Structure prediction request, 310 residues.
Amino acid sequence: MSAACGPGGADEPRGGIADRAAAQPASAPPPAERLSLNTATVREQWNLRQMIEACGRHGIRGIAPWRDKLDELGAAQAARLLRQHDLTVSGLCRGGMFPAADAAGRRAAIDDNRRAIDDAATIGARCLVLVVGGIPAGSKDLPGARQMVIDGIAAVLDHARESGVPLAIEPLHPMYCADRACVNTLDQALDICDVLDPHLAGGRPSGAIGVAVDAYHVWWDPNLPRALERARPERLLAYHICDWLVPTTDLLLDRGMMGDGVIDLPALRGMVEGHGYRGFHEVEILSTRWWRRDPDEVLRIARERHLRCS
Ligand code: ZN
Prediction:
């Protein structure tokens, strides 16, 4: 890569990051200690123990496990290892997937989310990320699916509150509406927060529920600046980074490394932090290309790109 970020390098025609950043509060590089490793980034190469040890080697201070990796190791054992390595858990991925074709399926989802909340509490996660789920098989009822999401979150919110685990609704790009998440914009996620955890008169929201802002899913949204202002800062629970490649060759597994795509990550970070977010920058790259690389090299590049391109 050249010194400038992005596929166009120093000759990028649309105004480089340096130009844009000058107009944004986040013109300085991010503090290195804000970087967190979402385990999806190296999930094909390492187990959770290896990931935790690698964070120590690479000076990465945060981690966000996915539940499959956590289940392999066990939450209690993971909690011990995380403490030994002085790692902060920026989030547990993931709860959600609430809509189902019948009542038994919806109850099973609620039970699964309660277990996820318990595991998140055990490892001291700052939030449980919710990928809320799409339309049940055989259904075309999108409004109905969205109502199932609200009902499902409502059913577990008290347990989350009592467990000290904030729930972070992650809106997903609309291309996932049918099969992964029928919450697709930050405003839509904030509407759910406002229904389930209204601002008390003249006061602030409780912090029991908020949003995970993933650059990959929200960068395109013309209402994003206003939605971030609306979220600030009590609803801003997590910030995920990667990049949008052009062309994208797979709907799920072709996310880019920061700097390799078209998202103006410094400008986005400027907005997120301009509205009071002070948490981790969680690098989450689901990519068959990066899964073929040496995972230590992936972390070394992620660390460098975090500083230079986000
Ligand atoms: Zn994410």
Residues 170, 212, 214, 240, 284 surround zinc ion (CB under 6 Å). The chain has twelve helices and nine strands. The chain has one domain: 31-309. The radius of gyration is 19 Å.
